[in-house]
Amino acid sequence: MNWKVLATGASTSTRSKSMAGRRVVHRLIAMFCVASVGLAMAVAPIAGSASAAAKKTNITYWFWGEGDIPGITKWMQQRIATYQTLNPGVTITLVPQSNSTIIPSFALAAQNKSGPDIDTQWATLPVLLPALQGGVTPISKYVKSSETSKWLNTSENVYKGALYAMPLYVIGVPLVWNKKLFKKAGLNPNKAPTTWGEFLADCAALKAHGITPIGMGNKAGDFGAWMFAIYEKQALNSISELTQGVANKGNAQAKLLASLDKMYTMFQGLMSKGYINSNVASLDFAQGWQLFPEGKAAMSFTTDGNALAWAKIIGQANIGVGEPPIWGTGKLAKTYDATQSSSEFITSWSPNKKADAKFLTWLHTPANMVALNKETGAFPADSRFPTSNITNSLAKTLDGFDTAGTSIWLENFIPPSIDTSADRPAGQLITSGGTAAQAVALWKQQLQLWQSQQPTQFSQFKTWAASS
Fold first, then answer.
1. Calpha distance 381→123 (Å, rounded)
2. Which domains does the chain have, with CATH numbers?
3. Global confidence as pTM
4. Looking at residue 93, what DSSP letter applies?
């Protein structure tokens, strides 16, 4: 995310994620989605009179969050029902988005200046690049700073002092391990591997006992994107080393590519040593994750929600959670990986911006934030949420990771088109038997194509990168 400057509010977390990761998008699906919504909106509601129709406020809300927080769509539907009861003149139509449609659907809507009044995008560049193109209205124009100052991780979506999107929750990416399998391999089940040497030693011991060390899925490039977000970040001294490299400023791109080569060489080593499940390239993210609760892999990188769900399956006493082991030597190596991920914003063409902002602000009322945590286990992105409500010890540990110190989700800081054309395919090359050199060559090629084929977006990115 423009994973980036320190966040406001009680947390200084700044990251990612997506968090299930940004997905490879399908334009035809996106067009169908937008067209479907357009047809739905074309059917005007029957009103008792012209004046009654004029007083009616209709809000179309394209929402994403289920990929991060299972159950959040149901929570949102319940909030909308309650809000409509409290505000009988308002009708809110919720249109859930998938991982594959979230970005292209809005890109097409923005071209036509039609579709949602409120939309969801992953944090930072998926929000700020459309904002620079005129598709997003700063939410800070309609919500007072006395309110937004209570929201966490807002810096992920700030440009030149304006806040463009609202966070709902904060989500982190811990390393989890199965204590039973650790014990079976002769390892200390209560100690997380914190250094890279410890991590590799644990992997070797697990493999020697016939246990797959790491279980993941990378069919759509998600695991590879997470390796970039977690471990390329650890090689950097500042976010600008990434953004200036993407912006092709001076020799920054050459330095970035050299850094990526080291990260992908490490990734390739994990594959060649058999420390990652051999079918990682053929499993999607969810399928790869299932290896952990099924006892088929001893470790996994996952989300807070998955860690809590898996604890219910294998027993909370049998699961350990820790921060990802340190591999890199950059100044950012010890930052964590939490982000607001799901960012809600008002489109520039919405005719009811004040009503949109009123609803979004209402979602942050204490009762709604408490319900979000209670019903989904998510950690609300609001400093007013009473953390005393988090009574589960595992959840407390995870929330502590998310809110202590600085967090950066590196994927937030690359343009979505580079994420889909370079970041994800490069990781897929590695998990399919390719080399670090091939992965870096792909990055170089796609950066050059982006610069030449999308000059407007490239220029906007450089403007944003320079100001950030």
1. 13
2. 26-170+341-389 (3.40.190.10), 173-335+404-468 (3.40.190.10)
3. 0.86
4. E
